[in-house]
Amino acid sequence: MREKISTSSTVYAEGRSERLPQLAEELVRRKVDVIVAPGTPAVQAAKQATTTIPIIFPGVADPVAFGFVASLARPGGNCPARKTLGHQPPSFSRALN
Hints:
There is one protein chain. By secondary structure, the protein is an alpha+beta fold. It has a single domain (7-96), classed as Rossmann fold (3-Layer(aba) Sandwich). It contains 2 helices and 4 strands. Strands 1-4-2-3 form a 4-stranded mixed beta sheet, with helices on one face. It is globular and about 40 Å long.
């Protein structure tokens, strides 16, 4: 049986939201499995960078109003679920399984 190895890494915007699109594109180039985008600007950048990598977004009060999901019952697209991960810095995280 093959053992699964998980790794993760984080990229930081360092308080500069204008860096978010560049960071999102970097994660897409790395072919990450999941993007964790805490906060509305980070989700917007991630959604512009990819339509296939799942995006998890803690800290977004109303994802329907922002157009991130069609509805809470049936989110659709690459934003499959809303997760609460506690307080996160303005960053993108990746998790590889």
